[in-house]
Each structure stands twice: as C-alpha cells, then as structure tokens.
Amino acid sequence: MLELRHLRTLIALRDAGSLVEAAERVHLTQSALSHQIKDLEERLGSPLFLRKTRPVTFTRAGERLLALAEQILPQIRMAERDLARLAGHEQGRLHMAIECHSCFQWLMPTIDHFRDHWPEVEVDIPSGYSFDALPSLARESLDLVITADPQPLAGIHYEPLFRYEGLLAVGKQHPLARRDWVTPEELARETLITYPVEHTRLDVFTQFLTPAGFTPAEVRTAELTIMMMQLVASGRGVCALPNWALTEYLERGYVRALHLGEQGVWSTLFAAIREESRDAPWMEDFLRTARETSFAVLAGIKPA
C-alpha cells in the first residue's frame, strides 16, 4: 500500500539528488531508505528511478508518484493547519531575533510563507536584541532566536535546522586562490574581514584559529556581505562566511573560496525556542517551513 512516508521519501530523493542525502533529510539510514524504496517498487511492480545516476533520474512510474506527492502533501499540510485552528491553537506570537547576518536569504521567504498560512500569529523582528537575544528569549521578550552558538539556558530548546560549511573567500589574484584549503597559520598572516560581532561568536575563530593558537594579523569589520565581498575582491583582506552566503559571488567569479583546513569546518544552525512552545502547531509549522525553505534556496547545506 502506498503511504505518505513513501511520497515524502521520493520528494526528498528528488530534492537531494542522491540516496545518501535523501536518507539524511528523512532521518533514516541509507540502508533503511533503500529497503523502503525497494519494498515499494516490489509492491508496485515497477522501478521508480535509475540506479547509479546523479542527480537521480526517475522512471515514468517515479515521475507519476512525484506528481502525486506534489499534489497530496501540500493538501495534508493545509489540513493539519486547519485542524490546529479548529482546536483553538491558532493564536500566538512569534517575535524573533537573528544572530546571523546572512540568514535573511532563506528566512524572509520562510516568514512570507508562514504569514500566508498563519495570519493569526503575530510575527515581528524587533530591533535591539542582536547582542542579548538568548537571554531575551529566556525572559520571554522574544519567542525564537536563530543562532549557531547555543548556550545552556534553563527552559530553552535548540532545534537544529541544517548544517553548513564555513569557507574562506579570497580575491582571485590572492596567493591562496590556487589552493583548496588554508591552514590556521596561513590565515594568521592575513587581514580578516568579519561582521561587527564578538570573535567568540564567529566559527572561524572558535573552531579554527583559536584552537590552533593563532590570531589574524589584522581584523577589519563590515556591516554587509556585499561590502565584505568588495573588500575581498579588491585585495583588502579575506573573510570567512557560510557556504550558502558565498554562492552568488562564486557563481559570478567574483572571489575564490577555500576550505578552512583540509577537513573543513562545519557548524549547525539552530532555532532556539522556549520548551513550552515546542508543541504549538504554528511553531512546529514554522520550523518545518524553515527547513524546507532552506533546502530549497540554499546550496551546500546538509541535514542537521
């Protein structure tokens, strides 16, 4: 029998492009996912996709089920929202802060989608909480904080959204531009351009430079990503940013990107919320929408 989990699996397989990444998205092992698909194919008497192709190529049967999934799953989602309203769970407040300068690329479409489906929930991004976001969440001045730096606070739950790699952007003429990765010692000889936040909140320091005992030759700050890219492209320094924040500039050939160390530096982005709001239907829907939107618009991220 065809089940909703099968439809969700096929959507994940299409969006991820491989069994490995699809398994991560639906929180299964690759073996369990392969078994689920094989079992479904045996029930239907038809293969759903061509093995050993990347990205995955679906058969006509697979394409038909994908079309069904695109029709059915949004209707299920809408019904769940309607049932929550009928149960009286529609009222709420979602005041949030973002400890991530480059998060608006995926957060804005998430908020737009959420407002369309939960008009009764008050959504706002009040100013003045950039440097006191998590304590403000605990004090109930905020309801959600996007952060990559979780702190142990009583009553606060950290919901992982996705994993991302920090990359070092350098100018195309920079001596490091021909390299695939950089060492902490090499980065210590550079002018590092960062957002104007504490170094303890930047992965390039906490996960790369500081553990190795190095500091940059100079630190320069810029408010906006485009300003940082202008400085990097003109040879005024280098900067470390999430891989998705660099996609546009890399595609345009504006800068080059290197891994931080041979293995790279990966971090997790979280949505911090209070424990009592975890089960609110509108909060669950916002978090689900945030994940779906992130994987739809960002390149290079992985399931948390």
UniProtKB/TrEMBL annotation:
The lineage of its organism: Bacteria, Pseudomonadati, Pseudomonadota, Gammaproteobacteria, Oceanospirillales. This is HTH-type transcriptional regulator MetR. Its main location: cytoplasm. It comes from Chromohalobacter israelensis (strain ATCC BAA-138 / DSM 3043 / CIP 106854 / NCIMB 13768 / 1H11) (Chromohalobacter salexigens). It is found in: Cytoplasm. GO terms for molecular function: DNA-binding transcription factor activity; transcription cis-regulatory region binding. One of its GO terms (biological process) is methionine biosynthetic process. CDD domains: PBP2_MetR. The keyword Repressor applies. Residues 2-59 form the HTH lysR-type domain. Belongs to the LysR transcriptional regulatory family.
